[in-house]
UniProtKB/TrEMBL annotation:
Region (Disordered), start-end ranges: 269-289
Species name: Symbiodinium natans
Protein name per its UniProtKB record: Uncharacterized protein
Length: 289
């Protein structure tokens, strides 16, 4: 099979979760792809980003030799040379490696050449925001209704940005929430709903970044702003279907929180929340504009 065909096959197989859980299938496919390339003719950035996304979706960490080979294709480039989507895929893959529970895997980037480590740090610290997928109308209405319900509660923070780590739809006390529309699930819809591979990995990554202190320190080696991310108890998800099937009176209970208004009435101005973006503290509104 031609190299580009192997890449397309890898992408489709990991999107549909057809590879083995241990990652042997993915590593074998990547090994065959790497064997077809030479340093003088690396794969284009688009195809490299596709491989990185496939590794992320399948939860596969490459051996050091393969990881060094793959990064050698992208490390000579500046972050500005990547498209918005390519940069997001690269960041998420790097964070995925740094978030591994096994110390040997988590430290693999520290064993890369210095120029590759410098490149990784530059990618994470670049201020370009991550790509957010298009939002269908059902998701937009769902999130708007949740916002309307919680907007005056001083314990709720809306739209928390985490720089290269992505975003949270809301934070209620010590718990983060992701508000998921139809685009987050495999079709046809099943009961219970089944998340697409990318969304499963997104939840895993946010849990590691925001609920594990060791992961934060690992990421901080390349992105110091990680130490300013909130340390949370959990990251939960709420689907548009759960919301629609719940009566308006019972919906606050879905967030596991008793909503309240601040003394003196609704919130009228934004406050500061120390969420890092590009290594800096970011200004985060407590209400949607």
């Amino acid at each position: 099979m031609p190299t580009m065909g192997l890449i397309r096959f890898l992408s489709a197989a990991t999107d549909l979760e057809l590879t083995d859980k241990g990652g042997a299938d993915v590593r074998e496919l990547v090994s065959r792809i790497l064997a077809e390339t030479i340093p003088q003719r690396p794969l284009p950035l688009e195809e490299t980003a596709t491989i990185l996304q496939s590794l992320l979706n399948s939860g596969t960490v490459l051996p050091d030799k393969q990881l060094r080979h793959l990064l050698s294709w992208v490390a000579p480039n500046r972050p500005s040379h990547f498209s918005h989507l390519q940069l997001t895929s690269l960041r998420q893959f790097v964070l995925f490696v740094l978030a591994q529970a096994e110390e040997t895997q988590r430290a693999s980037l520290l064993r890369m050449p210095v120029e590759m480590q410098t490149f990784v740090s530059a990618v994470l610290c670049n201020r370009m925001p991550n790509v957010r997928p298009g939002i269908p109308e059902a998701t937009r209405q769902f999130r708007s209704q949740v916002t309307e319900m919680v907007v005056d509660d001083p314990d709720v923070v809306l739209g928390v940005q985490l720089g290269p780590g992505g975003y949270l739809d809301l934070k209620v006390g010590n718990t983060a929430w992701l508000l998921d529309g139809p685009e987050a699930f495999l079709r046809p819809f099943t009961q219970p709903l089944d998340y697409i591979a990318q969304e499963k990995r997104r939840l895993w990554l946010l849990e590691r970044l925001l609920c594990d202190e060791g992961t934060r320190r690992s990421v901080a080696d390349f992105f110091p702003g990680a130490l300013q991310w909130p340390l949370l108890g959990s990251v939960n998800r709420l689907s548009w279907q759960q919301w629609e099937q719940t009566t308006p009176a019972a919906r606050p209970q879905l967030l596991g929180h008793v909503l309240r208004s601040p003394p003196g009435g609704p919130i009228a101005s934004p406050s500061l929340l120390p969420i890092a973006s590009g290594g800096q503290v970011g200004r985060q509104p407590t209400v949607a504009e």
